[in-house]
Amino acid sequence: MSEALLQVKDLKVAYGGIHAVKGIDLEINQGELVALIGANGAGKTTTLKTLVGMIKPAGGEIRFDGQPTARLAPYHYVSRGLVLVPEGRGVFPRLSVAENLLMGAHVRNDKADIAHDMERVYHLFPRLKERQAQLAGTLSGGEQQMLAIGRAIMSRPKLLLLDEPSMGLAPIIVQKIFEIIRMIAAEGVTMLLVEQNAKLALETANRGYVMESGRITLADSAASLLANEAIQKAYLGE
Amino acid sequence: MDIFIQQLINGLIVGSIYALIALGYTMVYGIMQLINFAHGEIVMIGAMVTITCINLLLDLGVQLPGPLLLLAGLLMAIPVSMLLGFTIERVAYRPLRRAPRLAPLITAIGLSIVLQQLAMLIWGRNYRPFPSILPTKVHDFYGAAITDLQIAIFILAFLLMGGLFFLIERTKLGRAMRATSQNPDVAGLMGVNINTVISMTFVIGSALGAVAGVMVAANYDQAHAYMGFMIGLKAFTAAVLGGIGNLAGAVVGGILLGLIESLGSGYLGDLTGGFLGSNYKDIFAFVVLIAVLIFRPSGLMGERVAERA
Ligand SMILES: Nc1ncnc2c1ncn2[C@@H]1O[C@H](COP(=O)(O)OP(=O)(O)OP(=O)(O)O)[C@@H](O)[C@H]1O
Ligand SMILES: [Mg+2]
User: Fold this and answer.
1) Record's PROSITE patterns (chain A) (predicted)?
2) Which of B59, B92, B94, B223 is the 20 to 30 A CA-CA neighbour of B201?
3) Backbone φ and ψ of B76, nearest 5°
């Protein structure tokens, strides 16, 4: 059995004296869509930021694609194949939609392939194609989320990390975003999906982790988590 | 009538120089919300190195047409200023990137003083005349006088600005610079090396500053170790007038300030009944600066500066 794409062992992250992540283990295999759910302040965003080098861990080990990542400078992660769609989307408001997408391909130099991937993104998100010359700051929230996902795809990630893609969006738009996430997964992109909307996330994912105040309290298949009574009470509002 | 046209021409020439320098302030501000008060000294050092270099060549008995001597001086001064800009960011500002905003600001002012004193040690406290190597031909333009040098300054300034706009708007580096100024964390996620982008910003701004310094020295026939203070303050005013952080604003602000100053000083004697002469022209920059800060702190084309403060 070959090594998992992402292996996290006993990861600890602190903000000064605040221990946000208190020693977690995670494993993501090639081709999986894994959900990470948990309440406000559980440490989900902190975990993702640490995985892409925006925060340096206080302890533990992260191995990605067979190599440790902890010592890399932040801008090296994307060329390794790790990219994050940040909480709140983080589009560049005064770059055009097309330029935002090109930023996703910043570390790539294969012009023809980039143009090809751009068409692929426009195919996934026809809305973005219509608005390619528009400044990203003028897009609606849903369109910005599409752009943030499209931009991440432009880097041809091996592992795509998504931080609350449904945040602040109308239910109908959320459905649309999740449709896209399934499509991307169907293309074989491995994903770690952080969501407050636990039901939707677990319905979409293969497996799930439950995080509570800095610790992973449950790890199981998405179907079992959905069927778990404690989870239903705490996160699924049933 | 010809006085008006003359002041208009002078204003445009000086304004285009202010614009070049203002771009240096505004680029750095745009990318790291820092006023690099040492930028005026980079301009001054560009002028000083060029003069020294030309004099050296003349002393060596090099027989070259004036414009080529000037070019040789510039080719020396530009890399020196670029290296200086690079070093300043590396040594003085980078360690303070996460410090409260007052710390790099005080550092910038301190650096400016250090560089002035250093320049004084090297070049002395006296005015340095600009070598008379350039053609002094004067053209008549609707009753006003304009020299080859002034025409050259104006054209070169706009070529450089055009080049900068091309770089920022049309190249990959420029796109990365804009992305970094809008969201450095996410730019980093996309693989942009923020440190490189910031270094490039200083280096490019310093190159423009060096050229502008030579323009100032050639235009006024002199340079001195303290010249960076006034020219820097005026260019800073121009950047604020246009809206700091905004490139087009820096150009508009520079030209506008040049015109205000030139037209204003041309008529200052008349306006004050002879009480203030045109040698008081520097007050216009400060009046403009104060007025902008009071009435429109975000400048003419500015973004929400106040929100970030
Ligand atoms: N920059 C920071 N400085 C100090 N503490 C922080 C910082 N960011 C997060 N924290 C704290 O770390 C803990 C985990 O925060 P994190 O943002 O990772 O949670 P989350 O699971 O993403 O929550 P949410 O669902 O609200 O996004 C919280 O207690 C939070 O207050
Ligand atoms: Mg979060």
Assistant:
1) ABC_TRANSPORTER_1 (PS00211), ABC_TRANSPORTER_2 (PS50893)
2) B223
3) -80, -45
Distances (CA, A) of B108 to A57, A226, B39, B104: 33, 58, 9, 6
Q: How many CB atoms within 10 Å of residue B100?
A: 8
Q: Mapping DSSP to helix (H, G, I), strand (E, B) and coil, where does residue A29 land?
A: coil
Could you tell me if residue B120 is inside a domain?
Answer: yes
Spatial neighbors of A219 by CB under 8 A, at least 6 apart, are A207, A208, A209, A210
What mean pLDDT comes out for the span B187-201? 97
**Phi first, then psi: what are they for A88, rounded to 5°?**
80, 10
For residue B190, what is the nearest residue in chain A, using CA coordinates?
A104
Question: What token pair was written down for A43?
Answer: 């440490």
Mean pLDDT of A164-168: 94
Is the residue at B257 inside a domain? yes
Whether B116 is in a domain gets the answer: yes
The residue length of chain B stands at 309
Can you tell me whether residue A111 is helix, strand or coil? Answer: helix
pTM for this predicted structure = 0.93
Domain residue limits at B176: 2-295
Residue B259, CA distances (Å) to B43, B159, B263, B264, B286 in order: 21, 20, 6, 8, 14
- Return the CATH number of the domain spanning residue range A6-235: 3.40.50.300
Confirm or reject: Cβ of A41 under 6 Å from ligand 1. yes
Hey, where are the domains in chain A? Answer: 6-235
Per-residue pLDDT of A24-48, as tens digits, reads 999 999 999 999 999 999 999 999 9
Q: Are B189 and A76 within 8 A, CB to CB?
A: no
Closest by alpha carbon to B289, among B247, B241, B227?
A: B241
Domain assignment present for B307: no
* pLDDT digit string, tens, across residues B95-105: 999 999 899 99
Give the number of the atom of ligand 1 that is nearest the alpha carbon of residue A46.
18
Cα A52 to Cα A86, A197, B53, B193, distances in angstroms: 10, 23, 49, 14
Q: What is the ipTM of this complex?
A: 0.94
Q: Output the CA A116–ligand 1 centroid distance in Å.
A: 38
